[in-house]
Amino acid sequence: FSSISKNSLSHEFWIDPENYHLSNDEKVIANIFIGENFEGSPIPFTKKYFKISFLHSKDGKSKIKGRLGDIPALNIKKISKGLNIIQIESVTKYIEYEELVKFEIFTREKGYPYLTQKHTENNYPDNFFESYKRYAKSLISVENFDGKDIDTNMDFELIFLDNPLKNLNESKRILLEYKNKILADHKVSIMSLNNGYFRKEYLRTNEVGHLDYLFKENTKYLIESVVIIEGSNKKKDNYAKWHSLWTSYTLKTPNKWFKCAELLLKFYEKL
Question: Which stretches of 110-185 are DSSP H helices?
Fold first, then answer.
């Protein structure tokens, strides 16, 4: 069982490819991180942690295979032209809280300011377990930016309704789904990193479950959100009082030179 630490309190979980934009003969190498604000510890590949790992592209869905203990965890050789989506789902994990104040800090930060009050009303102890699962996606491109995001059918998921790598002068819609239904008026954080400059923004989905966001060029993004529900409170789950679901999406917008190269490539392909 995990004890409370900086990483487990924040437990942002994200896929971080070494390169987000590849040529056709390159392979995808990506770390899986746990931490916060783009700083964290890489997780080795292990079936004890990763329940589901798939790659989605215009050519369909393929299982991502890995070697036990690999860091970076993901080494994907077969990729398709256009947009490719990496999907990861973790097994259920547990955190033991020894005091309620740390749980209150976590729940307030994630948009649940009254949960500790409910915890007390339920006569739950200050020492308790929380169960959690993590869901992550990452968007990479090969040769060009053609294609669209897909719903991978995870319990908690961010979905781009518009291609976030094209037409960066236009805002893009990002949908948030929970149990395949839209999640309206829910907190989402967007972290960005550009030339060493870090920024974190807090937004909320609208009445139809999405938010509009204007991405900047040549910037890495980590979008994340959390849902907290009642835990099973059963012996098999360490009598977990609460269960949290975490979703994240990473991408990197192209720079001007990359976009020019893409246009030139398309021009020569037509000749």
Answer: 115-121
